Amino acid sequence: MNAPQLGLSLLLLSLPQGPSPAPPVRSGSVTGEVVDFACRLFPRRGTHTCSVECLEKGVFPGVFDEASGKAFLAFGQDRNPAGGALAPLAGKRARLTGKIHEGKGIRAIVLDGVGRAEGERPASAPAPPTPDPPRDITLVASVVNVLDQVEASAKGTKHACTGRCLAGGGLYGLLDLESGRLYAALAPERKSARSLLEPFAGLKARVSGRVVANVIEVVRVVKA
What we know:
Order of helices and strands: EEEHHEEHEEEHEEEHEE
Number of strands: 13
Mean pLDDT: 82
Number of domains: 2
Strand content: 35-45%
Radius of gyration: 16 Å
Oligomer: single chain
Largest sheet: 6 strands, antiparallel, barrel
Shape: globular
Structural class: mainly beta
Low-confidence stretches: 1-5, 16-20
C-alpha cells in the first residue's frame, strides 16, 4: 500500500558502483530491503537483520536498490533521518519514489511516496556491495548539514553551512577541507554524532575517527 506525500528524502552512500554516472537531478524510484546502514557499515558481530528498533533509533535508515545495488539513506521533511517512518518496513522490501539529487559522493531523493514492494526479490538483482573494513582517519573539516551540501552540489552551487543549518537537527556531516569529500557522521555505538559535533556546527574542526565509504564514525573532535 502506497503512502503518498510522506515527503521523505534519501541519501545514497558512495559505496562501490557501476561506471555509468547518473545525472545530478532526476525523478525515479528505488526498491529494496529497508535497513539501518550503520549496522551494515559498522557491524558489532556477524550478520544482522534489521528490526523495528534498529530503524526507530537508527542514524542511517534507508534501502539497498535492487536495480543497482546502491544504498539509499532516508530523511523526512524535517531533514532528520526517517527511521520512524520506515520502521514498519524494517527488513522488508519497499518501493520509494521521488526526485533524486546527487553530489559530493552522496545522493539524495525527496520522495513522493513509499510503500511495501510486492513479491520476492528478483534473482537477477545484484548483491549489495560489501564495504571495505573501517580505516582510521584524521582530517580538518567543516561541520555541515549533509542534505544542504548534497542539494547545493546537485544544483551546481556552493553552500556555506552555519550553526543555523543544524539548529533543527538534520544529519551532521564533515566536509574535508583538503579533499572536498563529504562524510555523513555518526558516533561510536552507531548513535547520532550530534552531541559530539553540535558545538562545532558551521565551524572548522580536527576530527579523528573510522571511515567506511562516505561515513565517518567520530571518535575525537577538537577545534581546528
